Inverse folding.
């Protein structure tokens, strides 16, 4: 029997152990997609206790801020909301999480939580209902040390660069302050996330347009004005080091309409008339086609996250807001519309380097096959599938995604892992991924499916874990 989460955790073969301990474990981290607050990085936030770090809770400014992955598990365990996101004492909330974790066998949160306890707090035991008091005291004492501030957590994790997720109307003041702060060696770059400007079906859409008007310094009276305002903001983001966008869609749609129809749809929404489903799809198609062309001009990478149905529990959405644990996998296949969407851009020479992330694991093979249709000489991976995302970033999901990637394309060009997290303790997710990657490669080698050539294998590991992302996004970093 193997020891619980020891140094060879998830490493089943000798080759896997050699690849991980001899290469992957020492590599830096490039976190090209996360939701960490740049303000909290600049202010070097500190945490009073482990509950603040792990669970967060109700935000006085409205909505919730914290780990909705954990919240979902606690609710599934019958925990009352006051202990999940509410006002119960932090010690009691932590106890409820520990009790929930006892039942989380097979869940990635079990592994992530213990990796974080090991790496940041030096705790080698097992967190559960019976050890919660011990862990609570240990973590809270540790959190008082200088090395447990937000900046220190990032640097001790070996992060060289991270990209936040930012609305076009954001003034990026914290990114500017960080760029000017020579005491912090990690690059913190913005990523352009224009969802609020696109989602005209949302009740707060007019408020989003008002904010964009103010940021761009212009009136938005038509779709042409919207495009001009977005161009202004893209130029500003580019000046601040932005080299990528990110988009969240329910599904990757393609429903083209004449320009005059799109103008009418937008004008109606400005007048307060909600769009039909058909009009929503037509507007979003036009929006995405426009920004795709702009990204080519700027040499940005376009990331698209889709396959998600959001805010399924209306009562809880009204109470807690978005991103609070009530989203689910969208069951539709994107293959046909994704191909049409990408093809429309390619026909106009307006297809940027693109990364597609689907929340539906059934999309792995269709997406990998679609990406191969848009390969282009001179560009490695013009369109490619991104890492297993959200409900899929567990052991089985990662293995499935990488196996599909390998079966239909070139795994050696894969861009590797990202945290997609709001927590400063999430960087062991990269370790989790790297162990799984090395075990997958090691298994193929020891099964005679790839030669035992450590020079080539080491290069593959370095590229997937770090170098490929440096090259693909064009970041100002040295490869390893």
């Amino acid at each position: 029997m193997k020891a619980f989460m020891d140094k060879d955790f998830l490493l089943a073969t000798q080759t896997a152990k050699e690849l991980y301990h001899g290469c992957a474990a020492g590599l830096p981290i490039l976190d090209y997609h996360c939701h960490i607050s740049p303000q909290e990085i600049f202010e070097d936030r500190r945490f009073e206790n482990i509950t603040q770090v792990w669970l967060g809770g109700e935000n006085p400014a409205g909505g919730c801020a914290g780990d909705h992955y954990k919240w979902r598990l606690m609710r599934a365990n019958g925990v009352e909301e006051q202990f999940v996101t509410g006002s119960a004492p932090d010690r009691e909330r932590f106890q409820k999480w520990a009790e929930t974790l006892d039942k989380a066998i097979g869940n990635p949160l079990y592994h992530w939580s213990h990796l974080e306890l090991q790496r940041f707090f030096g705790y080698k035991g097992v967190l559960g209902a019976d050890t919660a008091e011990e862990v609570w005291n240990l973590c809270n004492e540790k959190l008082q040390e200088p090395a447990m501030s937000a900046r220190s957590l990032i640097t001790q994790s070996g992060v060289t660069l991270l990209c936040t997720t930012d609305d076009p109307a954001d003034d990026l003041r914290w990114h500017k302050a960080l760029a000017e702060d020579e005491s912090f060696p990690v690059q913190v770059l913005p990523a352009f996330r224009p969802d609020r400007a696109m989602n005209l079906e949302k009740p707060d859409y007019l408020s989003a347009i008002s904010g964009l008007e103010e940021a761009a310094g212009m009136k938005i009276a038509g779709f042409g004005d919207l495009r001009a305002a977005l161009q202004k903001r893209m130029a500003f983001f580019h000046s601040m080091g932005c080299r990528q966008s990110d988009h969240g869609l329910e599904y990757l749609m393609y429903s083209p309409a004449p320009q005059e129809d799109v103008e009418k749809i937008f004008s109606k929404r400005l007048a307060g008339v909600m769009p039909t489903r058909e009009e929503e799809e037509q507007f979003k198609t036009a929006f995405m086609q426009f920004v795709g062309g702009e990204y080519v001009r700027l040499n940005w990478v376009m990331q698209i996250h889709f396959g998600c149905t959001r805010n399924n529990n209306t009562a809880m959405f009204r109470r807690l807001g978005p991103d609070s644990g009530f989203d689910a996998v969208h069951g539709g296949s994107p293959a046909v519309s994704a191909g049409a969407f990408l093809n429309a851009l390619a026909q106009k020479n307006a297809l940027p380097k693109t990364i597609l992330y689907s929340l539906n694991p059934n999309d792995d093979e269709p997406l990998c096959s679609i990406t191969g249709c848009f390969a282009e000489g001179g560009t490695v991976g013009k369109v490619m599938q991104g890492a297993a995302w959200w409900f899929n970033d567990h052991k089985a999901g990662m293995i499935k995604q990488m196996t599909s990637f390998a079966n239909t394309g070139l795994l050696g060009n894969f861009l590797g892992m990202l945290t997609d997290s709001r927590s400063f303790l999430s960087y062991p997710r990269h370790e989790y991924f790297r162990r799984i990657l090395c075990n997958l490669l090691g298994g193929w080698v020891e099964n005679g499916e790839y030669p035992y050539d450590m020079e080539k294998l080491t290069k593959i590991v370095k590229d997937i874990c770090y170098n490929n992302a440096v090259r693909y996004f064009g970041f100002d970093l040295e490869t390893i």
Q: What stands out?
A: The radius of gyration is 23 Å.
